[in-house]
């Protein structure tokens, strides 16, 4: 039955591919005479009426939730997917009809041993939101707290595994086409596999939510910037995620925000500040900051604060990544393109034999045009995107976490400038980066590092006198080791002479033998 199901699904995929002329899309991206001949054959004189990005988006929407998710993941990989396609795939809507509330109740009972009517004082049977992976119901706990219950879609794992198997087959077929490996199809499918299985674990999403809430602790200065729902762990499992219910206005509904009394320009600037705080202070950021996941509180006590929802996709940066990014941005602010090139080489992301001045020239060609524009029109996300695209010809290894960061930065910029078209991202970002670099590199940074290492030093500092005394008591084997190394070198040289002599004798014998045979 599984084989027949896969064959039926494959047949539908083939029909959709031909309906939207995606065969032409694949072949046109492969530089090969064979691909060119095949392209002429499959077109049958047809010319596409829609752009390639629109055709791909519509095809993925028709193929269903798993392929919609796949398109959304591809939209975050501009290092692999052309910009026009990535932009169109970012418009994919992750909305599907809700599954029956009886199945939702059964999932809750299977996870916690009791039906929702017992677990909650009130449980709304009708979902308030439905996506390809899960849907959300509102409920009230017995202690009066209002919560949102996110429930995984039934049999989702079976559907995903079936479609992933077909994607792997298609990836192998694409790799066999001339120049197909350049598209890295199996790498893309593997990344999607990991991403989708992570999203199916709602307990992992809950942990991401809990971490972000801890970083923006309510009552702290940071808590004034961003509100994150509290996780209700006793009603959270791999299949169910229960969190505090949040009330607010979607950030894209500007007229409603203005009517509620929210300071819109201040809101735009705060969004940028939240993003850079997550990236450079925490190295942990919400990586799906599109308007559907970001709300603004309209409650009198918290009016104008951002509210974050949906924590399935987060990004993490190491100290090395943060330092690399900060120095790149600052060098760009100062138009120091040589430093940008040096940072790429020092990081090891370009081959060591890359010519620094050649890379500097390529970076200058990307960045210099931006300085002719007003600062409010300059996009940091676009700068990163162009740098990634330019770097491909230098065989730069694009780091996945930086691509995810670039995609999130584009979302933040777009959202901020929709709120305030005159938003000067640079004016907000530059002081933040300079302050961060000062904290990392100056006396404050030294003090912070010493404080971090103090617990380790407290363990081994008392042992230092004893270890030094033991080391001084040991006999000095240095002269003996030098004598042994000298003898080994002499033996090796003698062996090399014997080998050379033997090779010469063999060569002479072979020459005599050949001379005798030719007489």
UniProtKB/TrEMBL annotation:
One of its GO terms (molecular function) is ATP binding. NCBIfam families: PRK04750.1, UbiB. This is Ubiquinone biosynthesis regulatory protein kinase UbiB. Residues 92-343 form the ABC1 atypical kinase-like domain. It comes from the Bacteria. The chain crosses the membrane at residues 498-518. SUPFAM superfamilies: Protein kinase-like (PK-like) (SSF56112). One of its GO terms (biological process) is ubiquinone biosynthetic process. Belongs to the protein kinase superfamily. ADCK protein kinase family. Pathway: Cofactor biosynthesis; ubiquinone biosynthesis [regulation]. PANTHER family: CHAPERONE-ACTIVITY OF BC1 COMPLEX CABC1 -RELATED (PTHR10566), PROTEIN ACTIVITY OF BC1 COMPLEX KINASE 7, CHLOROPLASTIC (PTHR10566:SF113). Keywords: ATP-binding, Cell inner membrane, Cell membrane, Kinase, Membrane, Nucleotide-binding, Transferase, Transmembrane, Transmembrane helix, Ubiquinone, Ubiquinone biosynthesis.
């Amino acid at each position: 039955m599984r084989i027949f199901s896969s064959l039926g699904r494959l047949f539908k995929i083939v029909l959709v591919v031909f309906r939207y002329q995606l065969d032409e899309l694949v072949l046109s991206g492969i530089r090969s005479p064979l691909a060119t001949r095949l392209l002429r054959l499959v077109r049958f004189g047809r010319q596409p009426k829609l752009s390639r990005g629109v055709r791909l988006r519509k095809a993925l929407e028709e193929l269903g939730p798993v392929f919609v998710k796949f398109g959304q993941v591809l939209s975050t990989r501009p290092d692999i997917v052309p910009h026009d396609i990535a932009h169109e795939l970012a418009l994919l809507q992750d909305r599907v009809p809700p599954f029956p509330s009886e199945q939702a109740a059964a999932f809750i009972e299977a996870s916690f041993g009791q039906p929702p009517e017992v677990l909650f004082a009130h449980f709304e049977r009708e979902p308030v939101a439905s996506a390809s992976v899960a849907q959300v119901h509102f409920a009230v706990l017995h202690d009066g707290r209002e919560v949102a219950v996110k429930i995984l879609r039934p049999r989702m794992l079976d559907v995903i595994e079936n479609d992933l198997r077909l994607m792997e087959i298609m990836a192998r077929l694409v790799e066999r086409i001339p120049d197909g490996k350049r598209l890295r199809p199996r790498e893309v499918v593997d990344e999607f596999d990991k991403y989708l299985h992570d999203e199916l674990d709602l307990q992992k999403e809950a942990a991401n939510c809990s971490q972000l809430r801890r970083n923006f602790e309510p009552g702290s200065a940071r808590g004034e910037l961003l509100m994150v729902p509290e996780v209700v762990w006793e009603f959270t499992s791999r299949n169910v995620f229960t969190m505090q219910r949040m009330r607010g206005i979607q950030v894209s509904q500007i007229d409603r925000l203005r009517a509620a009394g929210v300071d819109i320009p201040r809101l735009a600037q705060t969004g940028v500040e939240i993003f850079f705080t997550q990236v450079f202070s925490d190295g942990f950021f919400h990586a799906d900051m599109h308007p559907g996941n970001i709300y603004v509180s309209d409650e009198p006590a918290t009016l104008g604060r951002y509210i974050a929802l949906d924590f399935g996709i987060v990004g993490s940066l190491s100290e090395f990544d943060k330092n690399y990014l900060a120095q790149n941005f600052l060098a760009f602010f100062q138009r120091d393109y040589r430093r940008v090139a040096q940072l790429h080489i020092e990081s090891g992301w370009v081959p060591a034999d890359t010519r620094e001045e050649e890379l500097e020239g390529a970076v200058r060609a990307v960045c210099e045009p931006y300085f002719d524009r007003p600062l409010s029109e300059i996009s940091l996300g676009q700068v990163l995107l162009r740098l990634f695209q330019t770097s491909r010809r230098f065989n730069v290894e694009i780091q996945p976490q930086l691509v995810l960061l670039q995609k999130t930065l584009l979302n933040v910029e777009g959202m901020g400038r929709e709120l305030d078209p005159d938003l000067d991202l640079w004016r907000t970002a530059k002081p933040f980066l300079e302050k961060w670099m000062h904290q990392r590199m100056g006396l404050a940074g030294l003090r912070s590092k010493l404080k971090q290492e103090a617990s380790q030093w407290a363990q081994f500092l008392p042992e230092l006198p004893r270890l030094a005394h033991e080391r001084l008591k040991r006999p000095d084997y240095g002269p003996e080791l030098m004598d042994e190394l000298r003898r080994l070198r002499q033996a090796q040289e003698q062996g090399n002479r014997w080998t050379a002599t033997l090779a010469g004798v063999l060569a002479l014998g072979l020459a005599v033998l050949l001379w005798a045979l030719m007489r």
